[in-house]
């Protein structure tokens, strides 16, 4: 898993951006050797994990202020290039479901993306997906409604027959 | 209501299979991301029910011109409608005041149209046009006799604010409406009170049923104000296609230009002269070219006469928009601030006004009057400038100045009064032959008022005047007839 793949949703992205701002501000107020301390105590665990993975992967030194600043800004640019995939589902997803959904998109050849998940009970089941401006409705709500209308129609006819036959 | 609009928004999404999201707002320009297949000028609908039109299509995002006062929120979904902005068209528009989006201002409901047309139609080509041959009578003496207009002409009405431009336009609407022409008044970014005053004028003069007002007030969204003249012109084309002559008034295009400039600057377009966008001329030319005199399929002619209005500041007609409009149109009528201050109504400055195609529509008599008046007024102007030196005046000069005073008095006309063309010809001819040479201005005005009242109320008197005018082959012949019968006509009117 690459560092960027630890950021799965727009919520994660928003939090990590806030943490990055804290880190950038810290660079100008504290000594570089305390950057590690800041990373452990003042930002979220996710951000800590992300940056640790990133610096390890790229063999970067936590003590060099210029390197830290340059790379933080580079990562922010990479965040800006992430494509949003909008997902509307019926229930609030747990972290496991989010990972599964993320993995599904990755396996279907989507890369450099982040999920923007919204909850709408009217979807009932399935999902409504928007990718690169394209809209795909895979919700079962319309089918259920059509089935209900058909069922209602049939029941009405049955009642009429019953009334006619007197049973 | 929310469920219905939500349902229709969802159906737009499913039909187009595309969605956009608002990512930046510089109201009324909204930047959206997504909608990969959207076209320029396509209509889009927001999740919250607002409408917008695609202003530009870019690689990363698109600019939408929003037709609502309140800005959209970031993250709002946007769907394509897959059609351009159209307005409903029906004969039931007559007598109504509508917004540029086709909503009845009185009821707040959308008009149900028999037909729907795109606001941006392409002007007809050369082969579909006909030469302008029919006169357009405004009912205002000074214009009909000196600056004649033709049906299908585009004549710019230009002048400072509060110089009587709108009054003149309403007089023209009154005359034309009484002649059966459909009249459309487009109030572009006007105050609500001004639009109400136009409505009241039409109601009081019983011409409401032949008129349509397309109104956008200054308090509405910029996008809606921008659409106003296009909506009015589309309605004009609808009635033209039914074989009706149309008079359309665009009040005023300098305001329209200001709003278009605002939209373009907000959309980050490179500013040109006076910060107007580079396609300013094209916008107005494309609009005004839709007016004209056209041939119908059955060989007849039908016209859209356009009177666009331009406002000047301190009488400066060399401004960017003003000169643009003067070069697009077939002439202009200049309302002079100084003449207005002197009490002249209408304050038309004949020397700074032009009509390029109106003269070919004049009858022989009117052409003769025009020629005589042209020469006379030029000579009068020069003579009046010498009088300032206080030199002694001979009899000829005194007579000239006296005639000048009478003609100036004749051209003064109250805003609620319109005079039929035959009556104008007769009254001027009576002045010209010296009927009131020794009378004072007030005596002349009284006699003229009596003749006018008699003409309007007495069918026999009217027929007599018409037969006199019809029997004269030119202006000189008419003068010959009136030199014998003129005094009799004046006396008859007093009875």
UniProtKB/TrEMBL annotation, chain A:
InterPro entries: ATPase_OSCP/dsu
Name of the protein this chain belongs to: F0F1 ATP synthase subunit delta
GO molecular function: proton-transporting ATP synthase activity, rotational mechanism
Predominant localisation class: membrane
Compartments, record wording: Membrane
Keywords: ATP synthesis, Hydrogen ion transport, Ion transport, Membrane, Transport
Pfam families: OSCP
Superkingdom field: Bacteria
Species name: candidate division WWE3 bacterium
Record GO cellular component, one term: membrane
Automatic annotation (TrEMBL), chain B:
GO CC entries: proton-transporting ATP synthase complex
Key words, A-Z: ATP synthesis, ATP-binding, CF(1), Hydrogen ion transport, Ion transport, Membrane, Nucleotide-binding, Transport
One Pfam family here: ATP-synt_ab
Gene Ontology MF: a single term: ATP binding
This protein's record includes keyword Lipoprotein: no
InterPro entries found in the cross-reference section: ATP_synth_F1_asu, ATPase_F1/V1/A1_a/bsu_N_sf, ATPase_F1/V1/A1_a/bsu_nucl-bd, P-loop_NTPase
SUPFAM superfamilies with a match to the protein in the record: N-terminal domain of alpha and beta subunits of F1 ATP synthase, P-loop containing nucleoside triphosphate hydrolases
ATPase F1/V1/A1 complex alpha/beta subunit nucleotide-binding domain sequence ranges: 139-354
Stated family: Belongs to the ATPase alpha/beta chains family.
Protein name stated in the entry: F0F1 ATP synthase subunit alpha
Lineage of the organism: Bacteria, Katanobacteria
């Amino acid at each position: 898993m690459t560092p960027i793949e630890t950021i799965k949703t727009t919520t994660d992205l928003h939090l990590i951006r806030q943490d990055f701002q804290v880190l950038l501000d810290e660079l100008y107020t504290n000594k570089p050797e305390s950057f590690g301390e800041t990373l452990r105590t003042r930002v979220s665990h996710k951000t800590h994990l992300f940056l640790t993975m990133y610096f390890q992967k790229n063999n970067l030194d936590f003590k060099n202020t210029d390197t830290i600043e340059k790379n933080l800004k580079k990562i922010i640019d990479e965040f800006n290039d992430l494509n949003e995939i909008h997902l509307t589902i019926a229930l609030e997803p747990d972290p496991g479901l989010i990972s599964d959904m993320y993995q599904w998109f990755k396996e279907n050849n989507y890369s450099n993306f982040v999920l923007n998940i919204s909850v709408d009970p009217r979807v009932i089941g399935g999902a409504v997906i928007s990718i690169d401006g394209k809209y795909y409705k895979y919700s079962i709500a319309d089918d259920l409604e059509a089935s209900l209308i058909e069922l209602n129609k049939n029941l009405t006819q049955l009642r009429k027959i019953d009334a006619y036959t007197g049973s | 209501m929310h469920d219905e609009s939500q349902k229709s928004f969802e159906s737009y999404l499913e039909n187009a299979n595309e969605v956009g999201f608002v990512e930046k707002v510089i109201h009324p320009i909204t930047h959206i991301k997504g909608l990969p297949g959207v076209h320029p000028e396509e209509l889009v609908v927001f999740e919250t029910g607002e409408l917008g039109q695609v202003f530009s299509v870019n690689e990363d995002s698109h600019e939408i011109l929003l037709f609502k006062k309140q800005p959209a929120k970031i993250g709002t979904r946007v769907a394509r409608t897959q059609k351009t902005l159209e307005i409903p068209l029906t004969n039931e528009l007559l007598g109504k005041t509508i917004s540029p989006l086709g909503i009845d201002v009185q009821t707040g409901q959308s008009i149900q149209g028999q037909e729907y047309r795109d606001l941006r139609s392409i002007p007809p080509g050369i082969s579909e046009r006909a030469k302008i041959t029919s006169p357009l009578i405004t009912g205002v003496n000074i214009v009909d006799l000196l600056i004649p207009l033709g049906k299908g002409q585009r004549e710019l009405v230009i002048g400072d604010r509060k110089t009587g431009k709108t009054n003149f336009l309403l007089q023209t609407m009154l005359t034309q409406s009484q002649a059966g022409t459909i009249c459309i008044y487009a109030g572009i970014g006007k105050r609500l009170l001004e639009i109400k005053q136009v409505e009241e004028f039409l109601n009081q003069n019983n011409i409401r049923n032949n008129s349509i007002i397309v109104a956008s007030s200054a308090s509405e969204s910029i996008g809606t104000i921008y659409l106003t003249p296009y909506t009015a012109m589309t309605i004009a084309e609808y009635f033209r296609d039914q074989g009706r002559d149309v008079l359309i008034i665009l009040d005023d295009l300098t305001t329209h230009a200001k709003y278009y400039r605002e939209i373009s600057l907000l959309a980050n377009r490179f500013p040109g002269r006076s910060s107007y966008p580079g396609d300013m001329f094209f916008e107005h030319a494309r609009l005004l070219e839709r007016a004209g005199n056209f041939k119908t399929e059955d060989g007849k002619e039908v016209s859209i006469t356009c009177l666009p209005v331009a406002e000047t500041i301190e009488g400066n007609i060399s401004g960017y928009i003003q000169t643009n409009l003067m070069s697009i149109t077939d002439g202009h009528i200049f309302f002079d601030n100084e003449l207005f201050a002197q009490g002249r109504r209408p304050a038309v400055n004949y020397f700074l006004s032009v009509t390029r195609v109106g003269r070919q529509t004049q009858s022989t008599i009117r052409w003769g009057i025009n020629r005589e008046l042209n020469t006379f007024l030029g000579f009068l102007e020069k003579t009046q400038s010498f009088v300032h030196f206080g030199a002694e005046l001979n009899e000829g000069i005194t007579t000239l100045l006296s005639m000048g005073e009478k003609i100036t008095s004749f051209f003064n006309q109250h805003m609620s009064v319109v005079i039929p063309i035959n009556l104008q010809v007769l009254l001027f001819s009576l002045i010209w032959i010296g009927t009131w040479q020794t009378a004072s201005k007030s005596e002349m005005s009284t006699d003229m008022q009596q003749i006018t009242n008699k003409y309007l109320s007495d069918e026999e008197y009217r027929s007599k005047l018409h037969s006199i005018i019809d029997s004269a082959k030119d202006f000189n012949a008419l003068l010959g007839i009136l030199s014998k019968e003129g005094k009799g006509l004046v006396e008859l009117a007093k009875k």
